[in-house]
Structures are given as structure tokens and as C-alpha cells.
Amino acid sequence: xxxxxxxxxxxxxxxxxxxxxxxxxxxxxxxxxxxxxxxxxxxxxxxxxxxxxxxxxxxxxxxxxxxxxxxxxxxxxxxxxxxxxxxxxxxxxxxxxxxxxxxxxxxxxxxxxxxxxxxxxxxxxxxxxxxxxxxxxxxxxxxxxxxxxxxxxxxxxxxxxxxxxxxxxxxxxxxxxxxxxxxxxxxxxxxxxxxxxxxxxxxxxxxxxxxxxxxxxxxxxxxxxxxxxxxxxxxxxxxxxxxxxxxxxxxxxxxxxxx
Length: 259
Ligand SMILES: [Cu+2]
Hints:
By secondary structure, this protein is an alpha/beta fold. It has two domains: 2-156; 165-258, Immunoglobulin-like (Sandwich). It is 58% helix and 16% strand. It contains six helices and eight strands. It has helices at residues 2-7, 10-14, 16-34, 39-71, 75-107, 111-164; strands at residues 175-180, 185-186, 189-193, 196-202, 211-212, 230-235, 239-244, 252-258. A four-stranded mixed beta sheet has the order 2-1-4-6. A hairpin with a 4-residue loop joins strand 1 (175-180) and strand 2 (185-186). Helix 3 runs antiparallel to helix 6. It starts with a helix and ends with a strand. The chain binds copper (II) ion.
């Protein structure tokens, strides 16, 4: 569980930077336009806000790409990423416009330029605020529908798991199949005879794999499996093999190989 909980919060936390600071800077610019005497202290603050927001967008894009390898790539996530990549240049232009307005105001050389620059900043700020909000909305929907899909798949696996589990003490031979669905291996426990070939097939849209964890007679690691992919391992050494998915280490399985 830890992996998922440690991996997930980074992205939702980071996105608060643009979600909060873009509209805040926009409001700051609006105030600076109607209260020129406040500009000296207000505009420098207004530069910092979209600067932090831009940093947040960049970090969110990076952490979002890391997340995608574990949550899969649904239509909603694609839309979320598409909007995020559109929002990034808007926040960047907003930052530059605010910085230019603050700089000109601070130098006090071309006072007539301050107002037009503030107007440009206001327009780009409005656009950037809208796009950041749309990106957040699409991301929230992706998380919500992903959760529903997740519990659906999990329930399906739990219902079907008992029928595919090999009874204790019964050693299967030849070839055996393990399905990965709903973030779980089915069957979770498998007893086989030495020389058996085991095939893992991934039915989830998230990527999974299977690799030994802890002491094992021999280590194995399947390929990273996308939806529909399969990989096989031949068990030539008897003993107990505990394994996990390295993306979601709470996904565990065990193979007992008898001689
Ligand atoms: Cu996995």
C-alpha cells in the first residue's frame, strides 16, 4: 500500500501551486490596475506568484508522467495531460508579462508602458487561470472514474479468484496461467511441479510485472506488461518463491515448486 500512497500525493500536492497562485496573481494585477499607488509593493509580489505557479506546472507534468506508468493511460488522463501542456505556455507568458510590468514600474522610465503591460498580464492571467482550472477538473475526473474502475475490477477478481485457486497440496505441472487483474494476481498462491512454465497475463490498463522479493531458490522478473501482454518463467528449482509487482508492491503472490 505504501508505494501507492507515497507515490500518489506528490502530484495532487504540487498542482496546488498553479491552482492557487495563478488566480491570486490575476487578482493582484487587477488590484494594481485600480490602485496605482500600491504597485510598488504589489507588483513584485505578483511576479513571485506566477513564478511559483510555473515551477508547480513543470513539477506536476514530471510527477504526472511518473504516475501514468502506474495508473495507466485512459482517455480522461490523456485529456488532462493535453490541457496541462496547453496551460504551461499560458502560465509562462503570464509570468513574463507580469515581470515586464513590474520591471517597467520599478525603473520608472517608461511610465506610460505600465498600464498596457498590465492589461496584457491581466488577459494572459485570465486565460492561464481558466486553463489551470480546466486541467484540474479533467484530472479530478480521471482520478474519480479511475477509482470506480479500480473497485469494479477488484470485485470481479475477488469473486472469480476462488474458482481458479489451485487447492493446497495439489501440484500442477506443464503450463500454468496467472492472470493480473484489478491490481492482484489470480491465483495468488500456486503450487507447481519442478519444470512447470508459468505465464502471467495482464488484463489491467495499468502496467504490471512479477518479480521475486526476499529469498528465493532463483530470482525471476517478468517484462513490464501492458494491457494484454504476457510473459513466462520456467521453474527449475524447487522451493518457495514470493513475488510482487514492482510498480505496486502491495500486489503479492507466491509460487511453491515441489520436486
Ligand atoms: Cu502492478
